[in-house]
Amino acid sequence: MGTAGRRPGVYVCGIDAAMDVIGGRWKVLILWALNERPHRFGELRRALPGVTEKVLASHLREMEADGLVHREAYDEVPPRVEYSLTSRGGSLNAALEPLGAWGKAHVLGGSPAAGEVGEDDDVPPVPGAA
After folding, report:
1. Can you give the pLDDT at residue 54?
2. 48: number of Cβ within 10 Å
3. Which one of 16, 27, 119, 125 is at 20 to 30 Å from 49 when CA atoms are compared?
4. C-beta of residue 59 within 8 angstroms of C-beta of residue 29
5. β-strand pairing of 39-40 with 69-74
6. Pairing status of strand 80-85 against strand 39-40
């Protein structure tokens, strides 16, 4: 695994170390897209609306250096490059699945909307409310 730019020995815990690898707005989404199948650069860019070419290229280089992404350049005209997950990237995706499930359950509609109280919430009654 490439460690250029990493802070070995400074991490407080494993989560701190993992967040250093996946930090940034787009890296987790890149991992998720590549989990489905290998993608060419343009396909990834279309799959992630809002990401710039510069940021996507930079994140892919960092993820390749960290051993998460494999870059395959084919000797063709026009040139073709595909990005895929390595086994390390796949294991990171598997580790992120429970986090995705938590987000679905608690942010995307599995829990009451902000300000609403669910039937299992332990909330004292409001005086004067019927």
Report:
1. 96
2. 19
3. 16
4. no
5. unpaired
6. antiparallel
Count other C-beta atoms under 10 Å from residue 88's C-beta.
16
Nearest by Cα to 37 from 1, 12, 70, 73: 70
Q: Which pLDDT tens digit goes with each residue over 45-58?
A: 999 999 999 999 99
The predicted model scores a pTM of 0.74
Q: Helices (DSSP H) in the chain: which residue ranges? A: 14-22, 27-36, 41-47, 53-65, 87-106
pLDDT bin (cut points 50, 70, 90) of residue 5 is: low
Coil vs helix vs strand at 74: strand
**Tokens (6 digits) for 47:** 């799959």
Q: Are 58 and 24 in contact (CB under 8 A)?
A: no
